Amino acid sequence: MTKRPVRPPRFPGVAKTFIQRTAPEAKPVAAATDAPSKVKADKAPKAKKGKLVRNSYAMPEAEYARIGELRKRMAALGDKVRKSELLRAGIAVLAALDDEQLKAALRRVERIKTGRPAK
User: Fold this and answer.
1) pLDDT band at residue 74, thresholds of 50, 70 and 90?
2) What are the CA-CA distances from residue 115 to residues 86, 107, 108 (Å)?
3) Sign, CA torsion 92/93/94/96
4) C-alpha 103: how far from its chain's center?
5) How open is the CA angle 105-107-112, to the nearest 5 degrees?
6) Mean pLDDT, the chain, as a whole number?
7) Confidence (pLDDT) at 29
């Protein structure tokens, strides 16, 4: 494999100027005062959105098909939902159960082998 020849820069002075200007300049630190900072009184602070996490899960085909059925059912009711919304709603329902009900619900779910299938 041969190396490509190095071309001279199109604008010779630009590269040096760019490199020199990328170094952060020291800004003078404002003196601390007892006066409160200027905050607009008419604006309420924005609520921070939670960070989203992406993950993948394995499940039997029949249960995956139920997600589609539930989405169609919700669409018939006039509310279009995503798969993630259905899963989050299910988690909310499970979280609302007491300990015995939660155990009973999880006993009804088939245990599956985790991990990727062999090729």
Assistant:
1) very high
2) 23, 21, 21
3) positive
4) 30
5) 115
6) 79
7) 60
